Backbone:
């Protein structure tokens, strides 16, 4: 992937900003910096970055509020970097529109991998009629899934679930978000119901359902699809 991408860092910790700036510029990303939420929103509007790295512990306003404000108009990926590591905080950020969440301290290489995944997802249009992953492919027009050129028999619900995951390639989708999208508001707490369907999908598309490559569990939070 060519790294001609711009990244906005919104973080009030000078050491973190400097570390991120050096790491990203070394990998040929264009970097802009903001030390609070107000400046971050302003820079996001004026620079239109390809991706935002957002801290939740900002000095002027809670990062969750900044995230919600950004998501009113900013559609590119947002990755949260925060010392807050509770499942409740992570789920809240993902439900508020974050693409991913990393807790501090983080490994630089892992962050770079998450950035590449988010940018790859940004480049993949949801309007593509066919997407391939490994020996599998999905055709959104005919609503068919193939594995090694053989049609995989999916129920309507299984197909809708798989299509939702694939169209959000690389993004962590929370249990509640998936349940609401596929089954409706009344099923938003039925996580066991979701686990059953995920297990069924894995048996049909994964080479080893016990060690899934494509439908990855984010423990206590939800699922992430990896097409690569």
Residues:
């Amino acid at each position: 992937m060519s790294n001609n991408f711009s990244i906005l860092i919104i973080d009030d910790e000078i050491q973190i900003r400097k570390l991120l700036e050096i790491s990203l510029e070394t990998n040929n990303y264009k970097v802009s910096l903001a030390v609070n939420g107000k400046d971050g929103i302003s820079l996001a509007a004026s620079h239109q970055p390809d991706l935002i790295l957002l801290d939740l512990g900002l000095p002027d306003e809670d990062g969750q509020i900044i995230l919600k404000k950004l998501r009113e108009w900013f559609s590119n990926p947002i990755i949260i970097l925060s010392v807050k590591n509770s499942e409740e905080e992570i789920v809240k950020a993902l439900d508020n529109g974050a693409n991913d969440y990393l807790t501090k301290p983080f490994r630089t290489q892992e962050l770079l991998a998450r950035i590449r995944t988010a940018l790859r997802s940004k480049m993949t249009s949801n309007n593509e009629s066919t997407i391939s992953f490994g020996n599998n492919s999905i055709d959104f027009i005919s609503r068919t899934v193939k594995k090694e050129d053989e049609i995989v028999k999916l129920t309507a619900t299984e197909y809708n679930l798989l299509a939702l995951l694939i169209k959000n390639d690389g993004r962590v989708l929370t249990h509640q978000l998936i349940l609401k999208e596929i089954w409706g508001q009344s099923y938003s707490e039925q996580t066991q119901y979701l686990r059953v369907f995920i297990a069924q999908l894995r048996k049909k598309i994964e080479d080893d359902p016990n060690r899934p490559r494509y439908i990855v569990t984010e423990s206590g939070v939800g699922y992430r699809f990896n097409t690569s």
Notes: The first strand starts at residue 6 and ends at 10.
